[in-house]
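User: Hi! I have a protein structure encoded as tokens and I'd like to know what sequence might fold into it. I'm fairly new to this, so please keep things simple.
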């Protein structure tokens, strides 16, 4: 037993032996590290792919999307590549883009529904017109007015005696969108500021003319009045013009705008 121990000590004490062992250990470390990095690089990732050619302005549905496996290296080194189906389904192909059959999806080729230029007007009923009401953080009560809320509109002005007149002009009007100064929905990730600049409505043509005239009269302002949750839940698609005849006459008399239809 003692001879074996002495032999082992002499073996390990030999400089050539130590050097050889160091080289072997170093090679093993390199091989293990290389193997790990290769596996990491070729680790297959499943990403969405187009099952068919998709033209601009196409709504992407589950039926349009397949899956394909690519290397992790490709995913890491491809800018704007979409890697998850949830980032594709429900989006639209950008107007100036076309995704070929078998093509990958890129964020630069996709649009959220609210990014489409005709998003607001595409579902408006015949006889209705879009109206944009300028607002700010204060007049929206700290950005508390949300799309699909039902609110009322009031007008503020002064009469010939300089007395302030405040009167309701419309009730139960549905907010289609709340947008910032760049025309982006403040409730989406598209808006960088998140500060409301306009409320979007769809109103009957005659109501639109009345609101437009009022908005162009100096010293007259239109402001929104939010209501509670029950008011929105009980709302309907009909805009109720509740302005008194005297208020309508006042708006028309002060307006220089005429309409020939």
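Assistant: Happy to help. Inverse folding works backwards from shape to sequence: for each of the 261 positions I chose a residue that suits the local structure. Here it is:
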């Amino acid at each position: 037993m003692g001879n074996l121990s002495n032999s082992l000590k002499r073996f390990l004490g030999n400089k050539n032996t130590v050097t050889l062992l160091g080289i072997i250990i170093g090679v093993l470390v390199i091989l293990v590290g290389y193997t790990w990095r290769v596996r990491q690089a070729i680790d297959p990732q499943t990403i969405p792919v187009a099952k068919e050619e998709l033209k601009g302005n196409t709504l992407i549905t589950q039926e349009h999307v397949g899956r394909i496996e690519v290397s992790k290296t490709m995913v890491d080194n491809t800018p704007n590549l979409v890697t998850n189906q949830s980032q594709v389904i429900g989006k639209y192909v950008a107007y100036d883009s076309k995704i070929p059959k078998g093509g990958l999806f890129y964020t630069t080729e996709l649009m959220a529904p609210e990014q489409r230029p005709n998003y607001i007007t595409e579902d408006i009923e015949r006889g209705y017109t879009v109206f944009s009401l300028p607002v700010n953080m204060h007049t929206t009560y700290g950005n508390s007015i949300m799309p699909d809320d039902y609110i009322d509109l009031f007008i503020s002005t002064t009469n010939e005696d300089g007395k302030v007149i405040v009167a309701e002009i419309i009730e139960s009007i549905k907010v289609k969108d709340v947008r910032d100064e760049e025309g982006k929905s403040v409730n989406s990730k598209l808006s960088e500021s998140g500060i409301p600049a306009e409320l979007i409505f769809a109103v009957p043509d005659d109501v639109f003319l009345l609101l437009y005239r009022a908005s162009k009269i100096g010293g007259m302002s239109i402001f929104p009045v939010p209501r509670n949750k029950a008011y929105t839940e009980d709302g309907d698609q009909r805009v109720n013009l509740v302005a008194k005849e005297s208020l309508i006459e006042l708006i028309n008399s002060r307006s220089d705008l005429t309409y020939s239809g």
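A useful reference point when you look it over: The helical segments are 2-13, 15-42, 72-76, 205-215, 229-233, 245-254. Feel free to ask if any position seems puzzling.
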